Recover the amino acids of this structure.
């Protein structure tokens, strides 16, 4: 199995229709996947599933490293749903979101050579 040697995570909340995704241009990374979900845990699981489907990667090792970095055990950090979070933070010119707001997690990575 291939191993991911270096990675970086970007996350946020956006409407899937407007999410432009993440790119590897002008970064030190060669690969990127983006997962979406109603909460942070769902989004990161989706991104990890995409890596697993993409090639013969050791996703369990990457998941373990991410969990250690975040300081969480068997469960991902608790998060409000994307819609709840966006509603609480809507103010001024930022209108309240619709029901399609989602968390996204992009994982940029390099594989072992």
């Amino acid at each position: 199995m291939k191993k991911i040697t270096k990675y970086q995570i970007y996350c946020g909340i956006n409407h899937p229709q407007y999410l432009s995704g993440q790119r590897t241009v002008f970064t030190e990374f060669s690969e990127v996947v983006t997962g979406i979900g109603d909460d942070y845990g769902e989004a990161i699981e989706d991104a990890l599933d995409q890596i697993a489907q993409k090639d013969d990667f050791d996703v369990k090792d990457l998941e373990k490293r991410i969990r250690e970095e975040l300081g969480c055990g068997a469960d991902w950090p608790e998060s409000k749903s994307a819609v709840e979070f966006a509603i609480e933070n809507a103010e001024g010119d930022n209108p309240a979101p619709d029901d399609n707001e989602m968390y996204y997690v992009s994982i940029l990575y390099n594989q072992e050579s």
In short: The chain is about 30% helix and 25% strand.
